[in-house]
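Same chain as my last thread, 93 residues:
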Amino acid sequence: MATRESMDELRQEVEDTIRYAEEQYKQSSLQQQYNNVDYTQALQKLEATYQDIAKIAHSASAEQRDQLHRMRLQIQQLQNNLVLQDIRGGEQF
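reply #2:
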């Protein structure tokens, strides 16, 4: 079972990563252009966080795995939004 501390740290990492990626998403939506470095960094942070979730899931209890699954879905949705926005050149959905 994953420790409470490791779950709390991961939860904080997920929240921080989501906040950063959402900010990049909003900036690119408003400006219809974006800082490519920050945008790429947001995608990289999302992927790294997704991998961290997967690592902890191996030693998690059933309840923790459920929490991790919800976190993973949030990360995936934001990754999809960023990628689609990049493909569409920043136009709003």
